[in-house]
Amino acid sequence: MSVEYYHGLCNRYRGRAVKIVTRDGRVHRGIIHRVDGRRVYLRPIDGARNLGGYGYGFFGGFGYGLALGAITSIALLPFFFW
Q1: Residues of the chain scoring pLDDT < 70
Q2: What whole-number distance in Å separates Cα of residue 37 and Cα of residue 79?
Q3: Cβ–Cβ contacts within 10 Å for residue 45, how many?
Q4: How far apart (Å, rounded) are the C-alpha atoms in residues 27 and 30?
């Protein structure tokens, strides 16, 4: 599939919980926060977040970006997943 296809799909699913598989086989689960011309940004929904202590948790410390060209599949996650 093309980058444009995944860009449109990510824009359509913005704000929803998704599972994204990249070309290298990594699986990313999160809520689509933002999409630009090159990346999709996810807010993780896995329980592996550190919410205590000092750090930058309040300013830009959440989420991560994935290159649109690295995506091989996107699936919506059911509501009861999280």
Answers
A1: 46-62, 79-82
A2: 28
A3: 14
A4: 10
Fold classification of 3-81 (topology level): SH3 type barrels. (2.30.30)
pLDDT at 16: 93
In this prediction the pTM is 0.73
Q: Residue 22 in contact with residue 66, Cβ under 8 Å?
A: yes
What are the sequence ranges of the domains in the chain? 3-81
Residues 62 and 58: their CA atoms lie apart, in Å, by 8
Neighbours of 10 (CB within 10 A): 24
According to the model, what pLDDT value does residue 65 have? 87
Phi, psi of 38 (to 5 degrees): -125, -25
